[in-house]
Amino acid sequence: MVSVVYEAPDSIQGAIDLLANATITTKVLAGGTDLIIQMQGVNEERLVVDVKKIPGMMDATLSDKGLDLGPSMPCAEFTARDDIKAVYPGLVEAAYLIGSTQVQGRCSVGGNLCNSSPAADTIPALIANGAQCVIKGPGGERTVAVEDFVTGVAQNCMDKGELLTLIKIPRPAANTSDAYLRFIPRTEMDIAVAGAGVSVTLDDDGTCTAARVAIGAVAITALLVPEAAQALIGTKLDEDALQAAADAASAASKPITDRRGTVEFRTHVVGVLVKRAAKIAAERAGG
Amino acid sequence: MSEAQEFKHIGQRTIRPDGHDKVTGRANYAADLALPDMIWGKILRSPHAHANIKGIDTSKAEAHPDVFAVATHADIPNSDAGGVLNILAKDKALYHGHAIASVAARTEAAAEEALALIEVDYEVLQPVMSIEEAMADGAPLLHESLMTKGLAEEPTSPSNVASRMEMNKGDIEAGFAEADVIVEREFRTATVHQGYIEPHACTVRYDEDGQSMIWCSTQGHFGVRQSTADILSMEQSKLKVIASEIGGGFGGKLGVYLEPVALILSKKSGRPVKMQMDRDEVFKGSGPGAATRNKVKIGAKKDGSITAMEAHLYYESGAFPGSSPLGPGCMTVFTPYDVENQYVEGFDVVVNKARCAAYRAPGAPQSEYAAEMVINELADELGIDPIDFRLQNAAKEGTQTMYGPKLKAVGLVECLEAAKNSDQYKTALKENQGRGLAAGFWFNVGGDSSVVINMNQDGTGTIVEGSPDIGGSRASMQMMAAEELQMPVDSLIPVIGDTQSLPHSNPTGGSRTTFATGMAVIEAAADVVSQFKERAAATWNVTPDQVEWKDGVAINTSGDGELTAAQICAAASRTGGQISGRGNINAQGAGPSFAVHLADIEVDPDTGQTTVIRYTAIQDAGKAIHPSYVEGQFQGGSAQGIGWALNEEYVYNKDGLLENPGYLDYRVPLASDLPMIDTVIVEVPNAFHPYGVRGVGESGIIPPLAACGTAVSKAIGIWMTELPMSPPRILKAIQDKS
Asked: Domain containing A8 — which CATH number?
């Protein structure tokens, strides 16, 4: 019989100690919507460290400086926060796309990030918002930009003993907003074939003064595409600028052909999504 | 039957007798039975699409402390029985997921551990994954001795073509010579799954002395008994099969997969054995619907009269010959059209995919898709409205079919007229939207149905039928019995009897149950009524013909006296014993059901994404016994056909391995993917059924393929010829055009 050792520490240090000292394969449990499926059929003893009892892991605090998001907060709670949605509508939309209504009660933005799928919906939205990951471990604390957090398919920069303790999302400048769009062949309950998160800042004329463009499901990790942002900055987000951003995103993508889509399809559609997300973000920013 | 027939119960929307149990979760499905001392069976499946099995070493699995039995093909008692090579492979693994060996162990987890201990020596072979590959010169052979049947000359060497068939009427060459316009196209459809929600499962107990038992989810438990008894070399009397509630079948639960293996494991272990497939196994190891490549050529005169119709149909059979629904595909392809000159040629081709099974109107969606697409293109070429074009050429009473009979009264014209009058057909389309219309024909079948109505001493009754209820048929049986007996619907409880309770009944399939089993119910109810009359007559000392049965009461027409069913039943032991009515029939005269569907689809030209914005399903039910379940059949068929048209397909990699064995990537439409599917029930009575019933279960899956195919084609201005019309395929078509 295969056994699972379950621990639910009530402090970050307690979790770090468990993770750092583990002698068997160890997994962090937030909502478990990915983890429990991944553990089905696993034939080895495992340590599961449930982090939901750690103070702060399930909270979200919005202030003038931005959002401090507990990584394990269930998406159902996160997406119900109108104050957060008013500031980061695209990020909240991305979180809302994960799974079904039932899954929303357990899944979390931090879990989506740490699962580190190339197709994760919240990752491009976090990158577009310039989010940072606060990681604590035996060696202390460090902060890593989301675009640098994921390093490969189901791989991230965290070392043994480290735990994602907070996602910090800066408060957007005035006249800034975001949007996230993904392509799936149906209307819900699916995995992104391509995704795009865009944040834009407009001045009073409606000229784009700052932008961040991130794309998902078109490379082994979500990508920040500065060339696409550059195509938008300094423009009024006219058709030519949007097309240039789309082309830059398509050029930056490095997709594969699999059961969900072809290289050609993903390359093209990610550009379409960037264009459409930029338009939505601009409308929200007051352009 | 008379058109003026008035009904008390037929046509009402009663509450289904199985409804409460299903919505509360009390209903018992295949995986819900556990027995004392039960152990768990699991199947080891081939990781290769095509491989020689050079050896299977089960010794380590047998040594596992929790393992009670291991079985391979060598343990099959009757290795000549039909389909045994699909139950457990012998010398060759013929598809990814092909059952190779099985174990039964104390727990499911232990069984899985033991599977990992079985060592199979495979010699991997090149897989054959398409009709082209299978028919190519020098193609690897799946079966070294497979000689094509039906060729003009006997073949001298084996091939992957299992059979060829041909049908014709009139003079096809002369027909095309008369045509002013000819359209010819080739179409492809992918391997699809029925998508029933309940996985295959069974619990069995082998009994050396008396009664072995199988509890399983099936469309036909008499068929399960027949196949399993044959495979185990048992007499049918020694095997009882109980049909559980069934969570969908659509043709995919007509055959056996787990049941014989479980019974062999039970026989070897002396324990009851439970087996259940997980979803991955359902996709890999059950029977999908055939992929096809179909060429259709149709010619017409400028005035809109069709002069010739020709088809060449290639159906993948999966790994074993003769498993494709090629026959019905050929027989249905042009039946909606009253055209003198028709020709069809068909091929059944083996490939390294799971053995095909029936899927709702088996074979017809694929062939009629090709025909209906060409009809629509031809209507365009001629500048004729697609409904008018069909009306001009529609099959009707007296039309000579290519496959044999002349049609009796059918409702195609009425369905087309209803389509023309529908709200949808009158609604204007916007940019990037297209509309498609298609017709569909399915024969429907009758056959053996056995029913007993047992009256209780309080005057209520039990209807024991042998047809598993997939689509609400128990409600219909109850209503028909109540109509004949003139008793309240809820005083008659319908149940599905096991294989010992009734004589053989054909499975629920071919849209036969409400028609054929319904006729058996009517006959059984009439038998009860005649016994009621006899008992009442004996009580009054009159003859039975002096007794009238009215509103559930026997009336003495030659004197005073009334007896209710309850009074007759209460007195039954004194008037000749308890009362039951019997209806064992071979139902003839199943009336075909024509359907006409309308699809409005919007295409996002930048992504190829489709949105079905409006959909109307119109179909001839003959007489709708329970209109809600008739509408449900129309809508269910539509939803499956839309999925087939737009997104569903088995995706195989270059090694022939199935890449999407689950609902995440095998994309059946979600509720949110579909609009409300409007329905119109047309009722052109079937003269051979007392109430005019036609089967309605299958025709509804046929038109969606071409209705959606045409709608998408119109929206993007390109005739699409390959299903599914997934976004990448549509986008590529748009990009290739511009």
From this structure: 3.30.43
Partner residue facing A272 (CB), from B607, B647, B735: B607
Of 2.40.128.130, 3.40.50.1820, 3.40.50.300, 3.90.1170.50, which CATH number belongs to B33-125+198-247+253-285? 3.90.1170.50
- Please tell me whether residue B673 adopts helix, strand or coil conformation: helix
> What's the CATH code, domain B292-444+591-737?
3.30.365.10
Sheet holding A208-216, edge to edge: A176-183, A194-202, A208-216, A223-224
Query: What is the per-residue burial (b if ≥16 Cβ within 10 Å, else e) of B336-358?
Result: bbbbbbbbbbbbbbbbbbbbbbb
Interface test with A, best of B731, B734, B735 (most A CBs within 10 A): B731
The verdict on a CB contact (< 8 Å) between B606 and A183 is no
**Residue B344 pLDDT greater than 50, yes or no:** yes
B113 contacts in A (CB within 8 Å)?
43
Q: Does B647 touch chain A (CB under 8 A)?
A: yes
Can you tell me the mean pLDDT for A187-215? 96
Looking at the domain that runs over B19-26+446-587, which CATH code has it been given?
A: 3.30.365.10
Buried b (16+ CB within 10 A) or exposed e, B249-268: bbbbbbbbbbbbbbbbbbbb
**Percentage of chain B lying above the pLDDT 90 cut:** 98
Note whether A259 contacts B732, CB cutoff 8 Å: no
Tell me if A268 and B735 make a contact (CB, 8 A cut-off).
yes
Out of A2, A187, A265, the one facing B727 most closely (by C-beta) is A265
Average pLDDT, chain A: 96
Q: What is the pLDDT of residues B495-537, one digit of tens each?
A: 999 999 999 999 999 999 999 999 999 999 999 999 999 999 9
pLDDT digits (tens, 9 = 90+) for A209-239: 999 999 999 999 999 999 999 999 999 999 9
pLDDT score recorded for residue A42 = 82
Cβ <8 Å between B667 and A259: no
* Residue B3, pLDDT above cutoff 70: no
C-alpha triplet B196, B201, B206: angle, nearest 5° = 150
Of B34, B69, B78, B77, nearest to B215 by C-alpha is B34
Q: Which of B158, B90, B195, B80 is nearest to B350 (CA)?
A: B158
Q: Read off the tokens for B315.
A: 């159906």
Say yes or no for a CB contact (<8 Å) between A186 and B608: no
Q: Of B606, B672, B732, which is closest to A264 when you measure between CB atoms?
A: B732
What number is the ipTM of this complex? 0.95
Is the minimum CB–CB distance between B727 and chain A shorter than 8 Å? Answer: yes
- What is the number of domains present in chain A? 3
Residue A106 sits in a domain whose CATH number is 3.30.465.10
**pLDDT, tens digit (0-9, with 9 covering 90-100), for B193-217:** 999 999 999 999 999 887 899 999 9
CA A213/CA A227 separation, integer angstroms:
9
Would you say residue A2 has pLDDT above 80?
A: no
Residues of B in contact with A269 (CB under 8 A): 606-607, 727, 731
Chain B contact present for A269, CB below 8 A? yes
Flag if A185 and B659 touch (Cβ within 8 Å). no
| CA pair distance B309, B340, nearest whole angstrom | 9
CA distance A112 to chain B (A): 18
Torsion angle defined by CA atoms of residues B608, B609, B615 and B619, in that order, rounded to the nearest 10 degrees:
70
Q: What percent of chain A has pLDDT over 70?
A: 99
Q: Are residues A153 and A193 located together in one domain of the fold?
A: no
pTM of the predicted model, to two decimals?
A: 0.97
B193 in helix, strand or coil? coil
Residue ranges making up the domain that contains A246: 176-285
The pLDDT tens digits for A119-147 are: 999 999 999 999 999 999 999 999 999 99
The average pLDDT across B84-99 equals 98
